[in-house]
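Give me structure tokens for this 181-residue protein.
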Amino acid sequence: LPFDPTRPVALAQPEHTAVTDGRWAAPDDLPDLPDVYRTTELPLPRVHVARVRALVERLELGEFDKVVAARRVGLEADAPIDPLTLAARMIERHPDAATFAVDLSAAGERFWGHTLVGASPELLVSRRGDTVTCRPLAGTAARRDDPDDDRRAGKELLVSAKNLAEHGYVVEWIRARLAPL
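Here you go.
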């Protein structure tokens, strides 16, 4: 779905889906991904940091309840990347994430041969019959290489007033939008 409602819309219905219990294992013959290099960052890191600082000030003044400061990073690979291999590698690395690979050809000629691949720890919305499920996440904690440090960071995330407030805001926002339905 486009961000601009005047642009073409394409909906995709998967031919098949798989729900795993976190024990998915990549096939033995799954190819390696090519090396990837960062080519662009917009805005530049120093500009992004300045914007984030300004947003934090505005948050502290109460101008916003929540803000997402996104940036674009361009990458190039040594060879073409197979979207299904990329999705499989993402599942391998993050088995609990909702991972997808969607052919964008239905969006028009400009998108023929393009695939949107992604993974998210969140489930924004799922409907099965009359049951709607949402598992939004908000808050941040950097992953750690050491498993004990990583568990500690996760526990700290669960008791952090800042992160609990962010998560609560998202839950309430979704609840308010779904309540009329």
